[in-house]
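Apologies for my clumsy wording, but can you show me some protein sequence, whichever is easiest, together with the matching structure tokens, please?
=====
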Amino acid sequence: MYSYIIGKIKQIKDHHLIIENNGIGYSINTSSNSINSVVMNEETTLYTSLYVREDILSLFGFSSVLELELFEILIKISGVGPKAALSILSLADVNTLKYSIFNGDSKFIAQASGIGKKTAEKIIIELKDKIKDDFIGTESTSFVHREDSKLDFVTEALAALGFNPNEARMILKGIDTANLSEDELIKLALKKIGS
């Protein structure tokens, strides 16, 4: 029904945005990634999906088409509703999520709120073949895996210090991790959190 909405962000809440277009405020459910990519009172494009069930009519929107596409694939899996899909999409960016599915990393997927080990394994079984073309022939899969392991370690370390794992991941996303050790990453992340 709606493909996208262009408007100004008028309110930002947890997994929720209000975007104003032509004097109408649209209530949009979204992921942490999309929330972190928008700025209050700035014009933004959100790619949308209208979710309709018996007594539910909800609008979901994302800052990228790739995130919208993964959301729509996830909610087609039995046992994965829109809230669970948003929780999965809030774990990491789309490429990292797809790589985790491709690698069969159910432990990572199961970190999402409302997703147990069995559901995470089901997601991997159902999606692995659909996304394998994204990774076949890539030169840097082992490098990506090493970088993911490093980021996982740093995220866990920050969580142990009392920081929200999702916030820690968002902070780490803005840091060029390639030439930094895990200790250097932790120090830099703490500096960013404190600023």
